[in-house]
């Protein structure tokens, strides 16, 4: 299986880059498919360039000899990838648990459309749906959160932050992708479900998640106060005036009001991946390590 060629679309992204590193370490032949020049992990094959925004010829050329394709780019490109794939290739796609949001969301719409396209395709395929990912090489989400926490004397949250989330460590996303690739490379992929949710081992209240981030980042503890959603949205322009505070959108505030808890039974039973606890993952993140890379 070490000679298997794996084309990674979006190899410069967080999940794509981590996957390339891990596949190389396992002896796979990794062919990065990227849109522009960038620093790729050592050991990958020469990059192939393709613009997923309409350049069908370049994408088809980049994938002409593909066996397994992993699309870590946005789910909106699923149609283009399916059209460019060789008939005897197989696809592992990445979506997000944003699929299940109750709020109007373009990203969620793109994932629903992608799942529909995949269900109609004759190409063997499966999509992984990760929850919020933390711990990547360039973890913009957590670093952005730290930037906010450093500059606010209190932490304003709707409903005191009681709503629950289930973040997943980047290293566990990588392990899940590799397990899926190996299943797709075998003969039993016909029995796989159309998608598998991958998430942390358990859900936590958002306020507890913030407390863990504060502790792992070495910040001073801040009190959490309950602020109605409408008032938080009204405060967005004011927060934007505070130097160093990243922009927060109304959609992000809306999502703070919904529980994001998921079963990981398929992740455990089919992929045989056991995710690490949130506190452990945050320790690795802020120590600059990635145990599971």
TrEMBL record:
Return the protein name: NAD(P)-binding domain-containing protein
Q: Which organism is it from?
A: Sorlinia euscelidii
């Amino acid at each position: 299986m070490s000679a298997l060629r794996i084309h990674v679309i979006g190899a410069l992204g967080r999940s794509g880059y981590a996957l390339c590193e891990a596949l190389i370490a396992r002896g796979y032949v990794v062919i990065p498919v990227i849109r522009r020049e960038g620093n790729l992990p050592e050991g990958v094959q020469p990059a192939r360039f393709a613009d997923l925004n309409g350049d069908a010829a370049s994408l088809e050329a980049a994938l002409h000899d593909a066996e397994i394709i992993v699309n870590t780019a946005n789910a909106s490109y699923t149609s283009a990838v399916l059209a460019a794939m060789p008939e005897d290739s197989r696809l592992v796609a990445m979506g997000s648990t944003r699929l299940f949001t109750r709020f109007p969301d373009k990203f969620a719409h793109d994932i629903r459309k992608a799942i529909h396209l995949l269900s109609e395709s004759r190409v063997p395929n499966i999509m992984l749906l990760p929850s919020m990912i933390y711990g990547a090489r360039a973890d913009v989400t957590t670093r952005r959160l730290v930037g906010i926490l450093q500059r606010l004397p209190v932490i304003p949250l709707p409903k005191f932050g009681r709503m629950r989330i289930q973040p997943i460590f980047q290293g566990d996303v990588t392990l899940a992708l590799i397990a899926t690739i190996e299943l797709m490379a075998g003969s039993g992929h016909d029995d796989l479900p159309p998608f598998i949710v991958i998430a942390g081992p358990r859900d936590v209240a958002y306020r507890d998640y913030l407390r863990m981030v504060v502790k792992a980042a070495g910040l001073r503890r801040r009190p959490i106060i309950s602020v109605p959603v409408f008032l938080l949205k009204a405060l967005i322009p004011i927060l934007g005036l505070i130097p160093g505070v990243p922009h927060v959108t109304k959609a992000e505030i809306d999502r703070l009001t919904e529980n994001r808890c998921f079963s990981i039974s398929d992740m455990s039973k089919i992929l045989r991946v056991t995710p690490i606890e949130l506190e452990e993952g945050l320790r690795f993140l802020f120590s600059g390590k990635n145990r599971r890379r």
